[in-house]
Design goal:
By secondary structure, the chain is an alpha/beta fold. It is built from 6 helices and 10 strands. A hairpin with a 3-residue loop joins strand 5 and strand 6. This is Methyltransferase.
Length: about 210
Protein backbone atom coordinates (compact mmCIF):
# COMPACT_ATOMS: atom_id res chain seq x y z
CA UNK A 1 0.00 0.00 0.00
CA UNK A 2 3.01 2.34 0.05
CA UNK A 3 2.63 5.45 -2.09
CA UNK A 4 4.22 8.85 -2.66
CA UNK A 5 1.58 11.29 -3.85
CA UNK A 6 2.03 14.56 -5.72
CA UNK A 7 -0.60 16.94 -4.38
CA UNK A 8 -1.84 19.22 -1.61
CA UNK A 9 -2.23 17.36 1.68
CA UNK A 10 -5.35 19.43 2.39
CA UNK A 11 -6.94 17.80 -0.65
CA UNK A 12 -5.36 14.34 -0.33
CA UNK A 13 -5.81 13.57 3.38
CA UNK A 14 -9.63 14.04 3.35
CA UNK A 15 -9.83 11.15 0.86
CA UNK A 16 -8.38 8.75 3.46
CA UNK A 17 -10.61 7.08 6.06
CA UNK A 18 -10.37 8.02 9.72
CA UNK A 19 -7.86 6.01 11.71
CA UNK A 20 -6.02 4.78 8.61
CA UNK A 21 -2.38 5.33 9.62
CA UNK A 22 -0.28 4.06 12.52
CA UNK A 23 2.24 6.90 12.89
CA UNK A 24 2.85 10.37 11.48
CA UNK A 25 6.38 11.68 11.06
CA UNK A 26 6.58 15.03 9.33
CA UNK A 27 8.59 18.18 8.75
CA UNK A 28 6.07 20.90 7.82
CA UNK A 29 7.01 24.40 6.62
CA UNK A 30 8.35 26.46 9.51
CA UNK A 31 6.50 29.66 8.48
CA UNK A 32 9.77 31.59 8.14
CA UNK A 33 9.94 32.22 4.35
CA UNK A 34 13.07 30.08 4.13
CA UNK A 35 15.38 30.14 1.11
CA UNK A 36 18.67 28.32 0.87
CA UNK A 37 21.85 29.63 -0.75
CA UNK A 38 20.70 28.36 -4.14
CA UNK A 39 17.38 30.19 -3.84
CA UNK A 40 15.29 27.06 -3.30
CA UNK A 41 12.08 27.68 -1.35
CA UNK A 42 9.36 25.63 0.35
CA UNK A 43 5.66 25.89 -0.45
CA UNK A 44 3.41 27.68 2.06
CA UNK A 45 6.32 28.82 4.23
CA UNK A 46 5.00 32.39 4.57
CA UNK A 47 1.33 32.09 5.54
CA UNK A 48 -0.13 29.79 8.21
CA UNK A 49 -3.78 29.44 7.16
CA UNK A 50 -3.11 25.82 6.11
CA UNK A 51 -1.65 24.76 9.47
CA UNK A 52 -4.75 24.16 11.61
CA UNK A 53 -6.74 22.38 8.84
CA UNK A 54 -3.76 20.15 8.03
CA UNK A 55 -3.20 19.19 11.67
CA UNK A 56 -6.91 18.48 12.08
CA UNK A 57 -6.74 16.06 9.15
CA UNK A 58 -3.58 14.48 10.56
CA UNK A 59 -5.41 13.83 13.83
CA UNK A 60 -8.41 12.37 11.98
CA UNK A 61 -6.45 9.90 9.84
CA UNK A 62 -4.21 8.75 12.72
CA UNK A 63 -5.35 5.65 14.57
CA UNK A 64 -6.50 6.00 18.19
CA UNK A 65 -3.75 5.68 20.80
CA UNK A 66 -0.97 6.53 18.34
CA UNK A 67 1.82 9.07 17.93
CA UNK A 68 2.63 11.98 15.66
CA UNK A 69 6.19 13.33 15.65
CA UNK A 70 6.48 16.78 14.10
CA UNK A 71 9.42 19.06 13.49
CA UNK A 72 8.47 22.73 13.81
CA UNK A 73 9.70 26.29 13.48
CA UNK A 74 10.86 27.38 16.93
CA UNK A 75 10.09 31.06 16.24
CA UNK A 76 6.48 30.11 15.37
CA UNK A 77 5.96 27.58 18.13
CA UNK A 78 2.84 29.37 19.35
CA UNK A 79 1.11 28.74 16.02
CA UNK A 80 2.11 25.07 16.03
CA UNK A 81 1.00 24.55 19.62
CA UNK A 82 -2.35 26.18 18.93
CA UNK A 83 -2.95 23.92 15.92
CA UNK A 84 -1.87 20.75 17.73
CA UNK A 85 -4.04 21.42 20.77
CA UNK A 86 -7.06 22.51 18.73
CA UNK A 87 -6.89 19.23 16.81
CA UNK A 88 -6.80 17.19 20.03
CA UNK A 89 -3.14 16.22 20.24
CA UNK A 90 -1.43 15.97 23.60
CA UNK A 91 2.24 16.95 23.88
CA UNK A 92 4.16 14.07 25.48
CA UNK A 93 7.78 14.68 24.56
CA UNK A 94 10.36 16.92 22.93
CA UNK A 95 13.40 15.82 20.95
CA UNK A 96 16.57 17.78 20.23
CA UNK A 97 18.97 16.70 17.50
CA UNK A 98 22.45 18.12 17.97
CA UNK A 99 24.45 19.18 14.92
CA UNK A 100 28.22 19.19 14.62
CA UNK A 101 27.96 22.37 12.55
CA UNK A 102 26.13 25.70 12.68
CA UNK A 103 23.44 25.94 10.01
CA UNK A 104 22.75 29.64 10.59
CA UNK A 105 24.03 32.40 12.82
CA UNK A 106 22.27 35.46 14.21
CA UNK A 107 21.89 36.28 17.86
CA UNK A 108 23.03 32.68 18.37
CA UNK A 109 24.68 30.02 16.27
CA UNK A 110 21.95 27.53 15.42
CA UNK A 111 23.30 24.01 15.87
CA UNK A 112 20.26 21.83 16.51
CA UNK A 113 16.92 20.63 15.13
CA UNK A 114 13.92 19.92 17.31
CA UNK A 115 10.59 18.10 17.18
CA UNK A 116 7.62 17.45 19.43
CA UNK A 117 6.13 14.05 20.14
CA UNK A 118 2.33 14.29 20.12
CA UNK A 119 -0.15 11.67 21.25
CA UNK A 120 -3.68 10.89 20.14
CA UNK A 121 -5.37 9.16 23.03
CA UNK A 122 -3.17 7.06 25.32
CA UNK A 123 -0.59 5.15 23.26
CA UNK A 124 1.65 2.63 24.99
CA UNK A 125 5.16 3.70 25.88
CA UNK A 126 7.97 2.13 23.81
CA UNK A 127 9.72 -0.81 25.46
CA UNK A 128 13.08 0.97 25.12
CA UNK A 129 12.43 4.73 24.88
CA UNK A 130 14.78 6.80 22.77
CA UNK A 131 16.82 9.48 24.48
CA UNK A 132 15.39 12.95 23.90
CA UNK A 133 18.76 14.27 22.72
CA UNK A 134 20.06 12.56 19.59
CA UNK A 135 22.85 13.19 17.07
CA UNK A 136 22.20 14.70 13.65
CA UNK A 137 23.86 13.78 10.38
CA UNK A 138 24.29 16.42 7.68
CA UNK A 139 22.55 15.43 4.42
CA UNK A 140 24.10 18.04 2.16
CA UNK A 141 20.52 19.01 1.23
CA UNK A 142 21.03 17.45 -2.18
CA UNK A 143 17.38 16.62 -2.75
CA UNK A 144 15.59 19.34 -0.75
CA UNK A 145 16.60 22.61 0.95
CA UNK A 146 15.65 21.32 4.43
CA UNK A 147 16.29 17.62 3.85
CA UNK A 148 16.13 15.49 6.99
CA UNK A 149 18.59 12.58 7.27
CA UNK A 150 17.19 9.10 6.85
CA UNK A 151 19.63 7.90 9.51
CA UNK A 152 17.86 10.13 12.07
CA UNK A 153 14.31 9.35 10.95
CA UNK A 154 14.60 5.58 10.85
CA UNK A 155 15.14 5.11 14.64
CA UNK A 156 12.07 7.26 15.29
CA UNK A 157 9.96 5.08 13.03
CA UNK A 158 11.32 1.89 14.58
CA UNK A 159 10.64 3.16 18.10
CA UNK A 160 7.01 4.15 17.56
CA UNK A 161 5.80 1.56 15.04
CA UNK A 162 5.86 -2.15 14.31
CA UNK A 163 6.81 -3.89 11.04
CA UNK A 164 4.27 -3.32 8.25
CA UNK A 165 2.65 -0.35 10.03
CA UNK A 166 1.70 2.64 7.88
CA UNK A 167 3.76 5.82 8.32
CA UNK A 168 2.31 9.08 6.97
CA UNK A 169 4.23 12.22 6.04
CA UNK A 170 1.85 14.90 4.69
CA UNK A 171 4.77 17.30 4.02
CA UNK A 172 7.09 14.74 2.52
CA UNK A 173 9.51 16.95 0.60
CA UNK A 174 11.97 14.69 -1.20
CA UNK A 175 10.71 11.57 0.56
CA UNK A 176 13.15 11.05 3.44
CA UNK A 177 10.40 9.72 5.73
CA UNK A 178 9.25 7.33 3.01
CA UNK A 179 12.80 6.06 2.44
CA UNK A 180 13.31 5.60 6.19
CA UNK A 181 10.00 3.75 6.53
CA UNK A 182 10.81 1.45 3.63
CA UNK A 183 14.24 0.69 5.08
CA UNK A 184 12.59 -0.15 8.41
CA UNK A 185 10.08 -2.54 6.84
CA UNK A 186 7.09 -0.22 7.23
CA UNK A 187 4.57 0.91 4.66
CA UNK A 188 4.39 4.64 3.91
CA UNK A 189 2.22 7.39 2.51
CA UNK A 190 4.03 10.56 1.50
CA UNK A 191 2.36 13.69 0.16
CA UNK A 192 4.33 16.51 -1.46
CA UNK A 193 2.98 19.66 -3.11
CA UNK A 194 5.92 20.76 -5.27
CA UNK A 195 6.65 18.66 -8.38
CA UNK A 196 10.44 19.09 -8.25
CA UNK A 197 10.72 17.66 -4.74
CA UNK A 198 8.19 14.92 -5.47
CA UNK A 199 10.27 13.90 -8.50
CA UNK A 200 13.41 13.79 -6.35
CA UNK A 201 11.62 11.56 -3.85
CA UNK A 202 10.42 9.22 -6.57
CA UNK A 203 13.99 8.87 -7.80
CA UNK A 204 15.20 8.09 -4.28
CA UNK A 205 12.53 5.45 -3.74
CA UNK A 206 13.28 3.88 -7.12
CA UNK A 207 16.98 3.81 -6.24
CA UNK A 208 16.16 2.14 -2.91
CA UNK A 209 14.21 -0.56 -4.68
CA UNK A 210 17.13 -1.06 -7.03
CA UNK A 211 19.52 -1.42 -4.12
CA UNK A 212 21.26 1.88 -4.75
CA UNK A 213 22.00 4.69 -2.28
CA UNK A 214 18.94 6.88 -1.71
Amino acid sequence: MSRFVLGDCLSVMPTYPAGAVDFILTDPPYLVNFRDRAGRAIANDVRDDWLAPAVAQMYRVLKPDAFCLSFYGWSKVDAFFAAWKAAGFRVVGHLVFTKSYTSKAGFLGYAHESAYLLAKGRPAEPAQPLRDVLPWQYTGNRHHPTEKPVTCLRPLIESFTRPNDIVLDPFAGSGSTCVAAAEAGRRYIGIELLPEYHAAGMRRLAALKSGLAA
